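hey so i finaly got around to running the thing on UD19 glucuronosyltransferase from Sylvia borin. pasting the sequence first so u can double check i didnt mess up the copy paste, my clipboard has been acting weird all day
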Amino acid sequence: SDGGKLLVVPMVGSHWLSMQEVVEKLSERGHEVVVLVPEVSWQMKTTQAYKVVTHPVSQTLEELDDSF
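ok and heres what it spat out for the 3d tokens, dont ask me to read them lol
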């Protein structure tokens, strides 16, 4: 994007593992990236590469594990 700003709202799941690399590259190239992640997740961690904003969810990590 030419605007230099990107909001990413990934779903919990394996596609984030691929998407994360693209988001990090965009950040390295000077884009301002904000990733909106649920408070409870498996793979989505905080990082220095981009800004992470968490949002509350009604599910606990145990409930998320049990659903799979």
